[in-house]
Amino acid sequence: MGVSKGRRSAWDSIQDAATCLLAITLLAAEPAYAQGARHRHRHQGGQQRLLVVTSLPTFAAITRELTGDLAEVEAIARGDEDPHFVQPRPSYAAKVGRADLFVTTGLDLEMWAPTVIDRANNPRVVEGSEGHVVTYPGVKLLEVPEDVSRFGGDVHAFGNPHVHTDPVNAIIIAENILRNLTQVDPDNAETYEANFRDFKDRVMRRLFGDQIVQMLGADAIFQLARNYEFWGFARNQSFQGRPLTDYLGGWLAEATPFRGRRMACYHKSWAYFGARFQIECAVFIEPRPGIPPSPRHLGEVVGTMGDESILVLLAANYFSHSQVEQVASRTNARAVIVPLDVRGAEGVDTYFDLVDLWVSSLSEAFLASD
After folding, report:
1. Structural domain span for residue 353
2. Spatial distance between the Cα atoms of 218 and 201, rounded to a whole number of angstroms
3. What's the total number of domains in the chain?
4. 255 lies in a domain?
5. pLDDT per residue over 102-154, tens digit each?
6. b/e for 147-172, b at 16 or more Cβ within 10 A?
7. 32-75: per-residue pLDDT in tens?
8. What is the CATH number for 48?
9. C-alpha distances in angstroms, 44 versus 37, 183, 186, 187?
C-alpha cells in the first residue's frame, strides 16, 4: 500500500530528526584527538588564534612577549598564589583541554599539573607532544640535592625549580616556548622568532645596561651569564684602565646596594636571583622547604639575624605577612614582601615589571638599613 504525500512528509521529518540526533550523539562521543584536529584546522585556516595555557603567570607573560596578538594566553596559578599547592579544579582541566600548548616548569614544582593534564583528555598537550612545553632545559640548575628523602622537606630531586627569578633564565624559558610554538604554528614562525630576538635583546640590555652590551655583544654576554661565569670574567677584564664591572648598567647597576650582602628569606625561592645578583639567603624562616616554622625555629632565626646583623628579610607575598613582619620587627630588619610571579601585585603586568620590583625593593631596604 502506498504512502500518501502527507504521511511521507511526516515520515521524512521523523527520519531527519533521527539523523540529527545521531549526529549530535556522535559529535559528543567524538574522540579528543579528532576534536583537536578540527581545532588545529580552524586555527590554520586563520579563523582563530592559538590558545596557550601556562602553569604560572610569569610563563604567560613571557609567552605573550613572543606571540603578541597571535595567541590567547592564560595562566592557571595566580601571581600571589604558592605554585606548589594549586588545587587542580575542573575548570583548569577544561581550559587545558582546549589548549594548543601547555607550558610548565618541568622540575616537580607544579605537582598538580599531571592531574590537570590527565583530566583534560587533550593529546595535543600530553608529555612528549609538540604542545607540551617544559621551560627548564638549558638552565644551569642550582641546589640539586644529594639526599631526596622527605626528611629534607619538599625536596626537588632535580634542583631548585624557581628558575624564572634569574632574568638570564627568562631568555632560556622563552627559547623553550619558542621551539614548541614554531612546531605547532609554523606559519607564524618568523614572527615568533623575531619577537624572541627582541625580548632577548631587551632583557640583556635591561640586565647589563646598553654600554656593556654594545662593547661585548649580547650573545657573548649571554653565553657567559647562562653558566654564571659573567662576574668572574668581568672582574678580570678591563677596558681603558677600568674593570668591565664599572661599565655595568641596568638591573645589575641598580642592585649595587645589595651586591655581596646577606639577607634572610622565607623559602628557597631566590637561589637563581641570588646567583645572578650576588646576594645570599643566609637563613630561612622555613626550617626545611615546605615545612612551617615552629616557635623554636623562629627563635633561632631571630637569634641568627641578630648575631650576624642580617637586616633584610625577603618573602614572596603568598606567605604570612604577619609572621614575616613579626620576625623583622624582632630583629629591627626590613621586611621585603613581593610577588614571586607576574600579576601578583598591582602594576606587575610584565616580566620587566616583576624584576624592577624585586631590585628596587631590595635596594631601598638595604639603603634604609645602612
Report:
1. 230-369
2. 7
3. 2
4. yes
5. 999 998 899 999 999 999 999 999 999 999 999 999 999 999 987 655 444 45
6. eeeeeeebbbeebbbbbbbbbbbbbb
7. 433 444 344 344 455 478 999 999 999 999 999 999 999 999 99
8. 3.40.50.1980
9. 11, 13, 10, 8
